[in-house]
Design brief:
The chain has helices at residues 2-26, 30-34, 47-58, 71-78, 103-112; strands at residues 37-42, 62-67, 89-92, 95-99, 118-121, 140-144, 150-155. By secondary structure, it is an alpha/beta fold.
Length: 156
C-alpha cells in the first residue's frame, strides 16, 4: 500500500507542476500587454514601411497597417509638418510618429507623455529602424508641436 500511495502522490505532484508550467507559458508578456496598438499609414508598395512594421512587432507592439495611395493627404490631415516628413506616418497614444522612429523612443514618449504633437525622423536615414543595411548614419528624432516648432527628442 505504501508504494501505491507514493505513486499517487508523485502523479499528483507532476500534474500540478505540468499545469503550473502551462499557465506560466500561456501568460502574456507584461510589456506586450501594456503596449498600445500603433496605426501605421503607408504606401502599399513601400518595402521600408513593411520593415519598420516588422521591427515594431518584434518590439511587442500591435500594428494596424493602413495602406493608402494618398499618404501626403494623410500627413496633411493629421498635421505632420512638411519639413519633417518621411515615408510613413503612425498614430499611437494620441501622438504622431513620423518615419523610422525607434521602439525605444516611442516607449519613452508614451511613458513621459510630453505636451507635444509627436516625434519624427525626417527623411530615411540609413541604419534607422526599417532602413537596415551596411551603412549607418547619425540622425536625430525631433519632437514637434501643433505649430511645427521642433526640438531634439533623441540622437542616434
Amino acid at each position: 500500500m505504501k508504494s501505491s500511495t507514493k505513486l499517487i502522490a508523485l502523479v499528483a505532484a507532476l500534474s500540478t507542476l505540468a499545469l503550473t508550467t502551462a499557465a506560466v507559458r500561456g501568460r502574456p508578456d507584461n510589456d506586450a500587454a501594456k503596449k498600445p496598438t500603433i496605426t501605421v499609414y503607408k504606401d502599399p508598395d513601400c518595402g521600408c514601411c513593411k520593415n519598420w512594421i516588422q521591427y515594431l512587432v518584434k518590439h511587442a507592439y500591435q500594428v494596424d497597417a493602413k495602406d493608402t495611395p494618398d499618404i501626403a493627404g494623410i500627413k496633411q490631415t493629421l498635421g505632420v509638418p512638411k519639413a519633417l516628413t518621411s515615408c510613413h506616418t503612425a498614430v499611437v497614444g494620441g501622438y504622431l510618429i513620423e518615419g523610422h522612429v525607434s521602439a525605444e523612443d516611442i516607449d519613452r514618449l508614451l511613458t513621459q507623455k510630453p505636451k507635444i504633437a509627436g516625434i519624427a525622423v525626417p527623411g530615411m536615414p540609413a541604419g534607422s529602424p526599417g532602413m537596415d543595411g551596411p551603412r549607418t548614419q547619425h540622425y536625430q528624432v525631433l519632437a514637434f508641436d501643433k505649430n511645427g516648432k521642433t526640438s531634439v527628442f533623441a540622437t542616434h
